[in-house]
Amino acid sequence: MNITGLPPKQGLYDPQFEKDACGMGFTAHIKGTPSHQIVSQALTMLENMEHRGGQGSEPNSGDGAGIMVQIPHRFFVKEAKALNFELPEKGQYGVAMVFLSRDEELRNRHEDLLKDIIAQEGQVLLGVRTVPTDDSTLGKSAKDAKPVVRQFFIGRSSELQAQDELSFERKLYVIRRLAERHIRFASEPGGETFYIPSLSCRKVVYKGMLTTIQVGEFYLDLRNEEFESVMALVHSRFSTNTFPSWDRAHPYRFMIHNGEINTMRGNVNWMHARQSLFESEVFGDDIDKIRPVINPDGSDTAMFDNTLEFLYLNGRSLPHVAMMMVPEPWSNHDSMDAKKKAFYEYHSCLMEPWDGPAAMAFTDGIQIGATLDRNGLRPARYYVTKDDRIILSSEVGVLDIPAEDILYKDRLRPGRMLLVDTAEGRIISDEEIKDKIASEQPYGEWLEEHLMNLDEIPDAPEAIQPDHSNIEQLQLSFGYTFEELRKVLEPMASTGAEAIGSMGYDAPLAVLSDRPQRLFNYFKQMFAQVTNPPIDSIREEIVTSTATSIGPERNLLDPQPESCRQIILNTPVLSNEDFAKIRHVRRPGFKAMTIPIFYTAAEGAEGLRKALDNLCAAADRVIRKGHNFLILSDRGVDKENAAIPSLLAVACLHHHLIRQGTRTKVSLLLESGEPRDVHHFALLLGYGISAVNPYLVFESLQDMIKQGLLRGISHEKAVKNYVKGVTKGVTKILSKMGISTIQSYRGAQIFEAVGLQQDFVDQYFTWTASRIGGIGLEEVAAESLSQHYRAFTDKDGNDKVLDSGGDYQWRNDGEKHLFNPQTIHLLQHAVRTGDYKLYKKYAALVEGENEERLTLRSMLKFKPNGAPIPLEEVEPIESIFKRFKTGAMSFGSISQEAHESLAIAMNRIGGKSNTGEGGEDPARFVPDANGDSRRSAIKQVASGRFGVTSNYLVNADEIQIKMAQGAKPGEGGQLPGRKVYPWVAEVRGSTPGVGLISPPPHHDIYSIEDLAELIYDLKNSNPRADINVKLVAEVGVGTIAAGVAKGRADIILVSGYDGGTGASPQGSIRHAGLPWELGLAETQQTLIMNNLRDRVVLETDGKMLSGRDLAVAALLGAEEYGFSTAPLVALGCIMMRVCQMDTCPVGVATQNPELRKNFTGDPAHVVNFMRFVAEDFREIMAELGFRTVQEMVGRMDCLDAVDAAEHWKKKGLDLSVLLHEPKLAEGSERYRVQRQNHQLEETLDMQQLVPLATPALENGTRIEADLAICNVNRATGTILGSEITRKYGAAGLPEDTITFNFKGSAGQSFGAFVPKGMTLKVEGDCNDYVGKGLSGGKLVVRPDAKATFVAEDNIIIGNTALYGATSGEAYINGIAGERFAVRNSGANVVVEGVGDHGCEYMTGGRVIVLGDTGRNFAAGMSGGIAYVLDPDRSFVERCNLEMVLLESIEDAAELEEVRTLIERHVEYTGSQAGQRVLQDWNQQSQDFVRVIPKDYKRMTEQIQKVHDTGLTGEAALLAAFEANMRELARSGA
User: Fold this and answer.
1) Which residues form a coiled coil (predicted)?
2) Catalytic: 22?
3) Residue-range domains of the chain with CATH
4) Of the residues 17, 783, 872, 1043, which has the maximum number of CB atoms within 10 A of its CB?
5) Confidence (pTM)
């Protein structure tokens, strides 16, 4: 029996990457009256969030659920008496809830140890009680892991009686920490089975590996009427695995959490480093008993809870700790109260934020609070009732509260806090809490005295002057190439932004390259997908911060004025002048010391090892002398002294100082000639550096200006632009992980090493994943020295000239590429002539001819399954074709000719083409006269939701949710206005000539349960289609895929990092994500371990070029295969890599009508390519002895690693982890054999709506009905809408043909994708995603008629309403949550208030807001018009003005349109706010602010001009588009 249940690290699976999400909530009696009703209602809340939890392969084994309550004193007194011991007064005893082994001998041993610790700490064991349980409803895995649950009652010692209650809580905490140390984390046999869910004199936790319903069934105590509490916190867990885990269920000791901490590795590192400075007045000598503060085996929530608990028990209030750990985005908040801002700034000097999407509730047993992350990425709604109850939950409707009993309804706002004090009997507002805490100390005065900005520090007496006489030698020694000067430095110096590339990456991984590589290239950036969202660092800049502080930290437990004696840096990238200021700083409290980072070149690897040891020893010495700025410098490199790779020096010293306990005493700064790429700076920050001075970059820029390589710009401006570009680039990288601040990113180590030996990583990059071995210190030194010796060689000649490079684009003398002139020519000639022999020549080259192994798959060889079989016995080509797909390439990124050629080809062979995210012209749904079909079978749903209508979805065989793209995972996209031709705009539902933005995240997917909801919504939108979820390979993708499978996806695509793209930052193309071989193998292994493999199809893509690639993919677990780049090459692409510029010379990746004339591709060419690949695949199958693809899937035993012992780098690779075969569960398979159960038959649509609407569906008869609705009724109306669309097409039915009047609280995605003819009304309220993808229908939401609160002052619908709506109407009688009408492209909406980020990315439609808005309104808005009622003229402060104009409504016709919409709003909802506006129309109409995007206004005016000349239709749009482009060209825009 093992209650943790997580298997050990094996193959590519690593338990540290497990994730979870949840539904959470609490209920409490505000006045502090305990009752059993609170407990029973909390359990009801939990049951009504069952859909937010997870189950694995067993429906009766949950991922975990639980409840935290106040100690039920009266109940425990009675129970103790029955067991013959007595309990003292409430507060005079504590209760330890303990999970113990079912093995009696182990259990007795652990109990004895616990009893000894209690006695040693001077407390009294009063008695022990076995908690009564009923496991009859539990699944097998939950039962097998079930612990014995016992309660230990601990009496308060006499010496603690005179002290406050918190002193007893501290002692109980010490007892628990000692028990954990001596039982769970010692070498004690069975110690892993020992776990204490809670030990407190105030509260107790009942939890386990249970479904929400099972909590009350399993724990019999919870049913007892005498079991009473003032409050109850509940949680339902959705994990990314099915492994039994009783301890990872929530609640934890102080909190419940819905979300993820993205910066966890850094937070834990820094807390570990701070511990050596801890001295505590309240803990005294006990402080040593509780180190380490953070348990090493906990989840991110458990580690957060450890820290929260520790800081609270040391004397800070719970709200104070929450403000420290999860601060508001204060740095860019101009209107924030000065005292509160000072609080946050002061505490930023003490601790970095614990950053990530989070809704948290916490309690000390008296106060109960909740807070939301800075970006509002999790839902949390609450009711306050007239009988003094509060109910907060991830959803409304979890308790049935009569409308007349509700005092008000509200939500947690981004960065805000809610606090209920049951002792004071009141709710304390966010403003009051924070004002009180911010006023406790004169933080502003402390900052004024001790904190300084770098700008305030005087210039240095001297700065090192560049020496241009040896610049080329320095560039050579640090491995610069001419390509880097032109494609990395020049774009950033000219534009202040990282360069854009296209067509993906087809050069080898660093470990597979024969060319010397910088150490940076062995690391891959990690990114957010599914379990938490990336964020938009551009449009949501208000929540980001590039500032960081340098200077020593002091004791976190004893904050003093001097604790903020630090220097603020606005960017971590410093010019020579700014860096010199720090080097020469003369302020009290700061001492800088420069430590050279060289090693003796002649001594090679041993010299490098010694130099690293010496670096650590030197740092220890100068720290002891009081220096706190350690500058690592490689200035002065010469023939004898080679530079230590800067990343190695930084990471080595960072981890050494953590181990020494001195890390927080110093800041590390780097002065180096090596870093120049954005990826380099991100890595340096991720491994602990505070600031970097890339001196050689600045010298190179000056040299480029002198040589004419950089024109029209001064050196000062070039440096400024470069610093800006790197800072923006780093911010984008951290935002891809969902991190908001550079301060949090520093030390967070969010990278995977690919191609580095484990012992090397463990020594210098501790806690970094490195799974396939590779090179070590020997080879790192060799690569470094090869460039060093070349720079300092005595020979003259070409050797002294920079290499051309060839990393980003093929060069004859540069890095090798899979696609080069020879392979492109062979492939194109083969498919045009139908010559299979030519294809085989091409295939031999891309597969690694002559030992040129450029991919991981080329490092694998086949092992026969048996004797070869005749080719004619192998599955026919036509059957294999059904497994073939083309990748997601949008119409917009490639031309109509290319896009339709792919669709025709795939339909001819029975495969599937993919629309990409640009929508699809409905004309393509109808077959052509010759029998060809241009319809893409796969319809993609990406974050932009362009063209995603009910009609689009119904016309799909497969719907793909694009979570990430291989070439730029974690990023959105932008189609510039010059590429939005009229035909592109029509398909995307936007305006020609106006740019379009795809957000980095799906705004309805911030967690795993959100993805499960979108899968459910899309399955409702087309029950006949399979739902495919596209992931990108990274470490941990297998655990994410397990969560996706549990979320009921039908197909999971694991994409490789090397796939193509129309446009992406160059750093993302090369440095983010992993090859598909790693991602696919990990996913196959993890799904088998979770017994989930046989319920999903696995697909892979990413530079799939030949039949051999397919064979390897099949053996690693893939059943379906995607091709993108190769089919484009077959159609004529010559890899010019200018897709982003709309200048493709062969008409493939352009919308330009003239260039499109150059397109010479033919669907037959793609058919030939697919036939060749399938035939190639068949030949390999015959050789290996396989008759069908299915029997081949997952047969990793038929692969082996190639012997690379002769290669100086490849010899260190260990690919055995790819070939690890977990044990297959009995009756399971390595491929899909069972379909997911989407439970559509249980929906309100199938149960009631579709039967009721049958007359309307069959003959258009109008129908109307009244129905009840509750939060478990999700995606209501969507299946019915799909049936209407399937029968009547995009036109739908006449308005109000079907009207349903609902009463209650509608579940998520109410009215999603409903088409014209459907009217859905709710009297009550709704959850998140109302009107998602609205496709012509009408939605009305108003409060219950019995409600007594003021509608316009209360929240009525949740977050992300009208996301991607394309047409229709919505009338909302109340306030909406965050991101209202995000990406609305055609719906007309009236609402009475919205949260932050309203109308974000909107491209069409009209939105009228009759109340207040939150911050950042109209960010990224490029189309449509919003009208905001603004009587106090304050709206301008909350609007993002980057892309929009604020005007008054001047046009009479437009004013009448607005009035008409408000009249309809009043008609449908009875809105009092709307009535007041109409009653005083002449005055109120002048108070509207017209929010219109600049480009949209310009383009609509241009269209009107063209219409005035008599042109109409498509001709008018094209003329307006061309006129707009000419006007922009003239203005230089």
Assistant:
1) none
2) yes
3) 53-248 (3.60.20.10), 471-498+510-556+566-796 (3.20.20.70), 821-1203 (3.20.20.70), 1240-1498 (2.160.20.60)
4) 1043
5) 0.96
